[in-house]
């Protein structure tokens, strides 16, 4: 369970470094389900979003255990699911930041760092996970305090194979139609392979 413990320690350290007033250094047994509202106070989360966030936190806990057991099959299954999920989303919740994104980053960052170019953006690569990891560590949306030397080195322009566009799930389309009809927000832009919206990695 050393990997799981290390991942939790890394998450707590990053949260404290980035949001010291919301996550004190004395935080040991932190209730992650309530942290998002503290570190991202300008955002609100509906019941469905909170439930989805909680599920991702459960999933990432399972993944850290999978990494500790070196269960390649289980890890591959999770990565495939996550990559597909992120194909039509900027963050786990769509566009909103949450502590679940940071948990995924701390758990999978070291994994992505070791991937070959083909594993990252080859024909069967995890393009969207790579873009997502780069986005989380660099985007002002998250505001994470990560020294340049600790960031996962990702060349967003190094794309071996451009994946086919993925259509958003039907429920996502319906939500966007409702928002457009009520005047809430604009249309979601298509994500560019290897990049997230508002990515400023070239400025770091």
TrEMBL record:
Record-given protein name: Nuclear-export cofactor Arc1-like N-terminal domain-containing protein
Organism encoding this protein: Blastomyces silverae
Ranges for domain Nuclear-export cofactor Arc1-like N-terminal: 50-138
GO annotations of cellular component type: aminoacyl-tRNA synthetase multienzyme complex; cytoplasm; nucleus
Region listing for Disordered, in residue ranges: 159-204
Gene3D superfamilies: 1.20.1050.130
């Amino acid at each position: 369970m050393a990997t799981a413990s290390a991942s939790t320690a890394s998450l707590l350290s990053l949260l404290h470094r980035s949001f010291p007033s919301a996550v004190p250094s004395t935080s040991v047994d932190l209730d992650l389900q309530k942290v998002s509202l503290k570190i991202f106070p300008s955002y609100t989360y509906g019941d469905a979003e909170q439930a989805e966030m909680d599920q991702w936190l459960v999933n990432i806990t399972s993944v850290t255990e999978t990494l500790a057991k070196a269960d390649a099959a289980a890890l591959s299954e999770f990565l495939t699911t996550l990559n597909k999920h992120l194909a039509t989303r900027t963050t786990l919740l769509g566009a909103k930041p949450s502590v679940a994104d940071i948990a995924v980053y701390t758990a999978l960052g070291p994994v992505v760092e070791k991937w070959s170019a083909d594993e990252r953006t080859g024909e069967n690569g995890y393009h969207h996970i790579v873009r997502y990891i780069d986005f989380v560590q660099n985007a002002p949306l998250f505001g994470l305090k990560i020294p340049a030397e600790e960031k996962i080195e990702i060349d967003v322009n190094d794309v071996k194979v451009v994946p086919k566009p993925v259509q958003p799930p039907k429920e996502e389309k319906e939500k966007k139609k409702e928002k457009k009809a009520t005047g809430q927000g604009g249309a979601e832009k298509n994500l560019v392979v290897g990049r997230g919206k508002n990515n400023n990695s070239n400025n770091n």
